Amino acid sequence: MKKGAVFFDRDDTLVKDTGYMYKIADFQWMDGALVALKQLCDAGIAVFIVTNQGGIGKGLFTRQQMQAFHTHLLKEAKKADITITDIAYCPHHPEAVTAEMAIPCACRKPEPGMLRQLARKWDIDLGQSVMIGDRPSDIEAGKRAGCTALQLTDDTYLPDLVTAAIDIIKKA
Questions:
Q1: Is 122 exposed, middle or buried (0-12, 13-18, 19+ CB in 10 A)?
Q2: Are 168 and 45 in contact (CB under 8 A)?
Q3: Domains located in the chain, CATH noted
Q4: DSSP class per residue in 22-60
Q5: What pTM, to 2 d.p., does this model score?
Q6: Among 3, 7, 112, 118, which residue carries the largest CB count within 10 Å?
Q7: Does position 1 have pLDDT exceeding 80, yes or no?
Q8: 104 vs 58, residue with greater confidence
Q9: Residue 141: enclosing H or E segment and its boundaries?
Q10: Are 106 and 64 within 8 A, CB to CB?
């Protein structure tokens, strides 16, 4: 039986964004991120990250550098007894340095491709899931995928949004 999950944007939702985040030295959790992620793990709800990484397409960093950053993120989460099930990323950008990376794609948010891909891979019911992000493109991607979408703003605290997400998933 399919279950719901929570999908997070990465930059300025879980990780502080200082601009094209790929350097491990720049890694820093957002306030409340570990508390929020732990809430979900304790509730038995799968956690995913969906992140636009157009810096790859723009030639600012490589897939390998991004992967090293993600490996570090996963290790830091594990230290706090948090499991992040999977991370999906989109390397495309309209201003990419190659035509191959500048293509319109189904994965770059606000398109829902990353969420749909993870849902197929992990047998997730998107109608019972929640997308949490800080940008309108995150919210739009979640809605287009069929999720409930919650926006992190300067006036919201991530653990409070996660409490709401848990309630939504448990009631679905």
A1: middle
A2: no
A3: 5-171 (3.40.50.1000)
A4: --GGG--BPTTHHHHHHHHHHTT-EEEEEEE-HHHHTTS
A5: 0.96
A6: 7
A7: no
A8: 58
A9: helix 136-145
A10: no
